[in-house]
Amino acid sequence: MTISKDIRYIGVNDHQVTLFEGQYDVPNGMAYNSYVILDEKIAVMDTVGAQFGGEWMDRLTKELAGRSPDYLVVQHMEPDHSANIVRFMQAYPHATVVASQAAFRMMKQFYGSDYADHRLVVGEGSTLSLGRHTLTFLTAPMVHWPEVIVTYDALDKVLFSADGFGKFGALDIEDEEGWACEARRYYFGIVGKFGAQVQALLKKAAAVDIRTVCPLHGPVLTGEALAEALRLYDIWSSYGVETPGVVIAYASVYGNTEKAAQLLAQLLRDKGCPKVAVTCLQRDDWAEAVEDAFRYGKLVLAAPTYNGFLFPAMREFIEHLTERNYQNRQVAFIENGSWAPAAAREMKKLLEGCKNMTLGGTVTIRSAMDEAAPAQLAALADELL
Asked: Which residues of 271-289 are buried (b: 16+ CB within 10 A; e: fewer)?
């Protein structure tokens, strides 16, 4: 893949992985992206996962066409991007590793060397001339690790964005849902906690003319796709509402809480709610449930009391939200308890630390819906609209 006259893609597709980072379902695999800039001097942008080192080196060798690289730029130290630093330096011992000071500390921890005799430490605004191309480095701490840098090439107006603007899925499988769906799940799963840091990076990016974004996961972004990605990243990182609608996330033991959640969903649809997304926290992908909770402006949590507290699947879901700085949302509750119902109280308690939240009404089910429940759920639907 050619990015520009001088920039080539040398990444790989992983169809062996089933759980990315040990927890995210990736039915379409993953891409580990790497790039090479061919100029008077040659810079390689990041490496790939350990098991793909041979394939990556073969692609690099082909693009080099007999030349030797001068620099390896390490923007991010997660092993899916850094695992072949040692292999690269063994093949090209005269090359210089370019990274932040924090990255070199991690390099020593991961791989036993910080390449003290072959390294260039860069920070905010540092530059590196390759000839016609001059690289400018921008720090991006906690997007989503502390050592991260991104790199801007002024000649081709390319931003190498590290894990920013990443997406689940290999590049050799067409994603029928488009970029946003799996990019959103990726963002809120992996980067979502660090909205303030992403906002800071977006401000830096706005100060330069970017025509192309080359991330470490997912497709290269240009044109309208890039404009849309920038628009969505601004919404996501400011914890704004992307799409009007209501998410109903439920956990149910014997089906009675589920029946209440489904009735509420139908009432909302009948009353004209633009979008109602319903998810079962015990069976559906938790990361998709998190994605939806951040996408839409309103959330209903429905769960039974369990051991005098809260059903575990609901507790875990709320913790997924709160650890990602869930905020700026309206939340309503359905609780179920055959005696001493406590689920709503516990759900509200778990959300206490969230910013700018409206914790709304509660419908209490005792074992199963009674004759009063439909009217109570209808009133809750009116509150949400």
From this structure: eebeebbbbebbeeebbbb
Instruction: Specify whether the backbone of 218 is left (phi greater than 0), alpha (psi in -120 to 50) or beta.
Output: left
pLDDT score at 1:
84
Return d(Cα 249, Cα 286) in angstroms, integer. 10
Q: What SS3 state is found at 205?
A: helix
pLDDT at 176: 83
Could you tell me the CA-to-CA distances from 290 to 136, 281, 318, 351 in Å, in that order?
A: 35, 10, 9, 14
Q: Name the nearest CA neighbour of 166 among 138, 151, 188.
A: 188
d(CA 260, CA 52): 49
Please identify, in words, the CATH class of the domain defined by 244-384. Answer: alpha beta
Sheet of 119-121: strand order equals: 7-9, 35-38, 42-45, 71-73, 96-99, 119-121
Residue 22: CB atoms within 10 Å: 6
Q: How confident is the model at residue 214 (pLDDT cuts 50, 70, 90)?
A: very high
Q: Are 123 and 137 in contact (CB under 8 A)?
A: yes
The tokens 């109602």 sit on which residue? 276
Residues 248 and 250: their CA atoms lie apart, in Å, by 6
Q: What number of other Cβ atoms are within 10 A of residue 209's Cβ?
A: 9
Where in the sequence of the chain do the CATH 3.60.15.10 domains occur? 7-237
Q: What is the CATH number of domain 7-237?
A: 3.60.15.10
**Which tokens hold the place of 186?**
């990726």
What does the alpha-carbon distance between residue 94 and residue 379 come to, in Å, rounded to a whole number? 71
> Strands 296-304, 276-280: parallel, antiparallel or unpaired by DSSP?
unpaired
**Are residues 260 and 373 in contact, defined by beta-carbon separation less than 8 angstroms?**
yes
Handedness of CA 6, 230, 355, 342 (dihedral sign): negative
Kindly tell me if the per-residue pLDDT of 385 is higher than 90.
yes
Query: Quick check: 43 and 71 in contact, CB under 8 A?
Result: yes
Q: Start-end ranges of CATH 3.40.50.360 in the chain?
A: 244-384
240-244: which pairs have CB atoms within 8 A and are 24 or more residues apart? 240/328, 241/295, 241/296, 241/297, 241/328, 242/184, 242/294, 242/295, 242/296, 243/274, 243/275, 243/295, 243/296, 244/274, 244/275, 244/296, 244/297
pTM of the predicted structure, to 2 decimals: 0.94
